[in-house]
Automatic annotation (TrEMBL):
Pyruvate carboxyltransferase domain mapped to chain residues: 8-269
Enzyme class: transferase
GO biological process entries: L-leucine biosynthetic process
Name of the protein in question: 2-isopropylmalate synthase
Function description: Catalyzes the condensation of the acetyl group of acetyl-CoA with 3-methyl-2-oxobutanoate (2-ketoisovalerate) to form 3-carboxy-3-hydroxy-4-methylpentanoate (2-isopropylmalate).
GO molecular function: 2-isopropylmalate synthase activity; acetyl-CoA C-acetyltransferase activity; manganese ion binding
Stretch of the intact protein here: 1 to 388 of 523
Family: Belongs to the alpha-IPM synthase/homocitrate synthase family. LeuA type 1 subfamily.
Pathways involved: Amino-acid biosynthesis; L-leucine biosynthesis; L-leucine from 3-methyl-2-oxobutanoate: step 1/4
Recorded name of the encoding gene: leuA
Named cofactor requirement(s): Mn(2+)
Length: 388
């Protein structure tokens, strides 16, 4: 993708792993909107779904592939020809398609299809070869890699490379690993597996122990050059590595992590809010980078410091993540323009008649409350949308 050895490819899986969070199902139109925002933001690869999972997933991946601009569009497939063919049918419409195929390689996961190590190795060879005959961009993942025996992991990674995989993704499927192990595993694979220098290594971390971001960044230190992540860290159980966290960590701590991405960080806040709205998963107030309080200051000492020099208590500028520097407090003296701007920040670009309606509701509420908070505004928009 690039010859720049410090360029880290951002692979977003909000629409696949993120959508697998119980209750986070998104509609077709919502998926198209999020994919467009990801593409416009400079995400390199969008994992748009799991085409064999349902007709809806297939349609969404196909449509996202057709509408894609810069981004590679990827679909997920288990290690069988039917899944891979269906995946290809959906992603082939993209200017730059990718097939991502995987199989669980740890002892616990090998026991499920009841395959011996040799049988699984053969399956990996055959399915990666099949995928590569369809598409010249193939990613392969040994699911639960971090609990797979080293010898077997090294063996199957080599088989996948020989069969034509162009990216090898190392998933920490259950969020079990620690940062030093994450770095060391990638370093060792690159150093010891024949052919490893021909492919890109990716890291895919889950957040069960709250270490997904640290593990992803450590894997990059170890030589990985693709991070798999989601907006707001959405994902199975405790979620995945949060895209906004790794992007800003590499930006803010460039002094110790000389890596960079193609993501326009000023678009982070908007997409975070849209994903929260369409998935129904609110962002916790104190969430790094995109939480409501990430750039808020309440105590007197902090406010005093901020007024004199914003760097006293802020390591990033709010503008760098797409927040307007001024925190507009909404009250009964606020006008329509302020309301429009605040709603835009929250991800709502309302038509004039809708805005007028929300404005009337807002004025009525502001008469009763000293300050109208973001959650109040979101409730007003929801009421307006449902005609209550
Ligand atoms: O967590 C995981 O192992 C996955 C794979 C399908 C890559 O999401
Ligand atoms: Zn995952």
């Amino acid at each position: 993708m690039t010859n720049d050895k410090n360029r880290v490819v951002i692979f977003d899986t909000t629409l696949r792993d993120g959508e697998q969070s119980p209750g986070a199902t998104m509609s077709h139109a919502e998926k198209l909107e999020i994919a467009e925002l990801l593409d416009d933001m400079g995400v390199d690869i969008i994992e748009a779904g799991f085409p064999i999972a349902s007709e809806g997933d297939f349609d969404a991946v196909s449509e996202i592939a057709k509408r894609s601009k810069q981004a590679v569009i990827c679909g997920l497939a288990r290690a069988n020809y039917k899944d891979i063919d269906r995946c290809w049918e959906a992603v082939r419409h993209a200017g730059r398609p990718r097939i991502h195929t995987f199989i669980g390689t740890s002892p616990l996961h090998r026991a499920i299809p009841n395959l011996t190590q040799d049988e699984m190795a053969e399956r990996i060879h055959d399915t990666v070869t099949h995928a590569r005959n369809l598409c010249d961009n193939v990613q392969w993942s040994p699911m639960d890699a971090t609990r797979t025996e080293w010898d077997y992991l090294a063996r199957v990674v080599e088989i996948a490379i020989k069969a034509g995989a162009t990216t090898i993704n190392i998933p920490d499927t259950v969020g079990y690993t620690a940062p030093n192990e994450s770095a060391e595993l990638i370093r060792r694979l690159i150093a010891e597996v024949p052919g490893a220098d021909e492919v890109v290594f990716a890291t895919h971390c889950h957040n069960d122990l709250g270490m997904a971001t640290a593990n992803a960044l450590a894997a990059v230190e170890g030589g990985a050059r693709q991070i798999e992540c989601t907006i707001n860290g959405l994902g199975e159980r405790a979620g995945n590595t949060a895209l906004e966290e790794v992007v800003m960590a590499m930006k803010v701590r460039h002094d110790i992590m000389p890596f960079h991405t193609g993501v326009d960080s000023t678009k982070l806040m908007h997409i975070s809010r849209r994903v929260a709205t369409v998935s129904g998963f609110p962002v916790q107030y104190n969430k790094a980078i995109v939480g409501k309080n990430a750039f808020a200051h309440e105590s007197g000492i902090h406010q005093d410091g901020m007024l004199k020099n914003a760097e006293t208590f802020e390591i990033m500028r709010p503008e760098d993540v797409g927040l307007s520097a001024t925190n507009i407090v909404m009250g009964k003296h606020s006008g329509r323009a302020a309301l429009r701007s605040k709603l835009k920040e929250l991800g709502y670009d309302l038509a004039d008649n809708q805005l007028n309606d929300v404005f009337v509701r807002f004025k009525a509420l502001a008469d009763r409350k000293k300050e109208v908070f973001e959650d109040d505004l979101l409730a007003l928009v929801r009421d307006q949308e449902s005609g209550e």
